[in-house]
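Objective 1b. Sequence-to-structure analysis of HEAT repeat-containing protein.
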Amino acid sequence: MALSSLVPQTVSSISLLAKSTITGLQIWSLHGLLLTIEASGFSYVYHVQATLGLALDILLSEENGLVDFQQGVGSLINAIVAVLGPELAPGSIFFSRCKSVIAEISSQQETATLLEYAGKYLSVRFTQQLVLFAPQAVSVHSHVQTLLSTVSAGQQPTLRHLAVSTLRHLIEKDPVSIIDEQIEDNLFHMLNEETDSEIGSLVRATILRLLLALCPSRPSHWILICRNMVLATSGRRDAGNDSLNGPENESGMDFGEDDENMVSSSKGMPVQGYAFGAHMINHNRDKHLRYRTRVFAAECLGHLPIAVGKNPAHFDLSLARKQAANGEISGDWLVLHVQELISLAYQISTIQFENMRPIGVGLLTAILDKFEKSPDPELPGHLLLEQYQAQLVSAVRTALDASSGPILLEAGLQLATKIMTSGVLGGDQAAVKRIFSLISRPLNDFKDVYYPSFAEWVSCKIKIRLLAAHASLKCYTFSFLRRHHSGVPDEYLALLPLFSKSSSILGKYWIGVLKDYSYICLCLDAKKNWNPFLDGIQSPLVSSKVQPSLEESWPVILQALALDAVPVNTYGNSDATDENSSNNSLISGYSMVELKLEDYRFLWGFALLVLFQRQHPAPCRQIIPLSSEVRYGGDSPTEETNTTALKQYEIVLPVLQFLLTERFFAEEFLTLDSCRELLQVFCYSIYMDDSWNTLAISVLLQVVQNCPSDFLESEALGYQAMELLLAYIFSVFQRTVGVLSDHPKTLDMEDLISPLFITAKTLVKRFEAKKQFKSVVVAFVLVGYKCIREALTELSFSTVYDFVKCTIPLVKKLVDGEHLVLDIDAM
């Protein structure tokens, strides 16, 4: 801007030189004008008309056939477009002259190949400048037609690169207008014919950008396009019940006959929305698609569940049907085509090309991740994906075959874990038993898992996925046992001894994985006291590759470790009767992982670290992060699995309940300092939400109920437990007294009050009747009276009445020699 006053004189001088008859001087003068325009920016607007006139004069001169002149003039025009920008309106004299100059240069195609290339290059460059700086000047359709005529493999690589880059800019600038152009097929076939790796990468990036832009409104269209690409030839293998028996038709649309393990074919089914917008696809070209093109089409399908966006109608069948019936937006929702998508994913997972199978298995995992909690409106109380159990389990069976490669094996184990943690099995005992059988074989060969032809982290990731699959199966089974205290099917009961038998091996492996993960997260010195469980994980490269898998797997592994865990040699000196009696207190009736003192202390410290890190000054900097892909194991009390609702304490607090059993206190695994440390964490988090309170109170009950008497006789722990208990009581009633009426957000009092006063009675019962604790009971009574006075409805009064009745036994127990008569009925 400071040099803007020099622009007129500079332009005038260079323009005079450009009119010279000396060719070299003219060419360099044009270059000087170009540099002046780029440096001046908007200050050059007042000189545009004169420069355009100069460009036309040079172009129409006898020497205009030189390539250097063509490039110089074309570069000037493109620079002028950048300067004028939005002012370059259609029909204006500036736009007409710019367009005429470029058209004149492009028309010189018959003179020489070099001139032809220069003309096309400047024409595409002109289109790119219009897209970037003057999108209002020309319609999107005109731009697309110009660019598509340039992207064929017969053109120069530089020209193809420029055309594809411009298409990507156009998609990013105006994705809505590009919808009706239907350029997806052209881009796929350009990719198929492309020989330059750099341009091929750019084409793939452009297709993915188009997928992200258009998929939210046209998912069925992309399903059809990708299906035609992936299944262009009848090259699928015959694998018994897992294959599709029957010939394909010429278009590759017939998926063959169905069997018991297959989703029904979409042949003959109406495809809603824009699905048939792909009718322009040339199926003759599809038959000659290269392998890499088909692989990329399958990868595009893998992105589809995420590319549709977060609109709930894409994942809720009832909502999608309602909006489709009302004619809202496009009516093309992914959930309406989930059957087609699962069918296609299953076919890819069993296709004859082994390197494509992991993509199909990964797509099934992505579908589970997005639709795992989608209800089935036809069967209330059931999930939408429950009807596809056979296909999911069959895909796992194919992936875990003994002949499968490591990439497919890892994908299959991840799918098995997702099946168990998603709840789509719906209690199917046969499916659970089958998955247990499938993942047991790799466990027997665990120490031999090594692939010398692959990178080190491949074996590490397979081991992590295998251990996570076993952990998820155990969590799922225990969750089923908790929900069905009686009438547990024999198929589940038959698995429990097998779990107990394998726990000795799995426990060591699970602890090894968690220790490796803790070393990575804490950035500890690998040379000090670390014997890594996973080979090669000391390497920064290997650890960076496996860390996402560890972040996804550690919650379910931690839960599985704690379920019915017992101290090592607990029954070494006890008789069979005591052992059986103690086993009856276990959820499964069998002791699972036997923990050594060292391993127990590690798990205790790991759990506390996860709880304490919420006190970190920067919440986004978590020491032990929770992967966005993770889902709770079966023992989590919450049903919400949204990634935005994931809370680490909902994983760790149930684990602490299993680590606070009477066995661990009896074996002196837990010390007074350990209990005090835990209660201190609870004191820091006293004003958390109701989910935290429910879990924390249950953990506090475990401490109060199972710890030795001398722990409670210590004033440090005893007073801290009582103070924490009162804090929870006042915290609960402070938030609920004002909403005790029939309010939609009223807290379910039973979930908190019942464990609160069970804990209170247990705590006071284990204390000697000391004078200072009478005030605690009085506090209980006063809280109840206050709530009774403020109760607004019969329901709230009844709830508080029950609360006050709970305090009467405590008063009688604690007040020695005094008789406090509470005539509740008289109130």
